[in-house]
Amino acid sequence: MSKIIHNTDKYFSFHDSPITKCYFENGKLNFEFEYVSCWLNNQDVPAVYTSEGNPKLIIELESMISWTNWEKQIDYTKNFELHLQEIVGFEFLSFKQFDNSGKIILVGEDVEFTFKQFEFIVIPSNLYFYRNLYKDEIQKLQLEEMPKTNLQVN
User: Fold this and answer.
1) pLDDT tens track for 108-131
2) DSSP codes joined into one string, 68-108
3) What span, in angstroms and rounded, lies between the C-alpha atoms of 48 and 29?
4) Radius of gyration over alpha carbons of the chain, in Å?
5) What is the DSSP string of 44-57?
6) Quick check: 81 and 11 in contact, CB under 8 A?
7) What angle do CA 91, 140, 30 make, to 5 degrees?
8) How far apart are CA 33 and CA 17, in angstroms?
């Protein structure tokens, strides 16, 4: 099975996607989602696609700085692994990274951590065309850096 694996958040967005699975294993925080939006170069046509089929975000953690539910004022930092099953179904709002620091925002929760590396995994056979790129997007994006695939999409 072919996969697109990328280690930049520049071309992938899980914004508003429900979390379908979340677990911590071997030092890695694993998220699976209902869908992801991808800025891809498919058969030399850069466009935005969506992907179903449980796209993933895997973060190799260095340390958990804080995990808080600011709505309920609960701190999960010390035992965040026990909380992971509770966030299945939550909407994932954003992932931002700065050098080796990261921040995830969920509905009602903020997560801050340091990491060694992260990767997005998308199965190209689950891609669906969403829209062409706008002129300003083409000017901002480095097209030669965009993840590439030559598979037919739905």
Assistant:
1) 999 999 999 999 999 887 888 899
2) EETTTTEE-STTHHHHGGGGTTPEEEEEEEETTEEEEEETT
3) 26
4) 16
5) TEEEEEEE-S--EE
6) no
7) 30
8) 6
Question: Tokens 């000017």 belong to which residue?
Answer: 139
CB 127 within 8 A of CB 40: yes
Q: How big is the chain, counted in residues?
A: 154
The answer to whether the CB of 68 falls within 8 A of the CB of 51 is: no
Gap between the Cα atoms of 102 and 8, Å rounded: 12
Place of tokens 């340091």: 114
d(CA 23, CA 31) in angstroms, rounded, equals 7
Spatial separation of the C-alpha atoms in residues 27 and 11, rounded to whole Å: 25
Beta bridge partners of residue 46, listed in sequence order: 41
Please give the backbone phi and psi of residue 145, each rounded to the nearest 5 degrees, phi first: -90, -15
Strand partners, 21: 32
Q: pLDDT tens digits, residue range 41-68?
A: 888 889 999 988 889 999 999 999 999 9
pTM of the complete model: 0.89
Quote the CA–CA distance of 37 and 131 in Å, as a whole number. 10
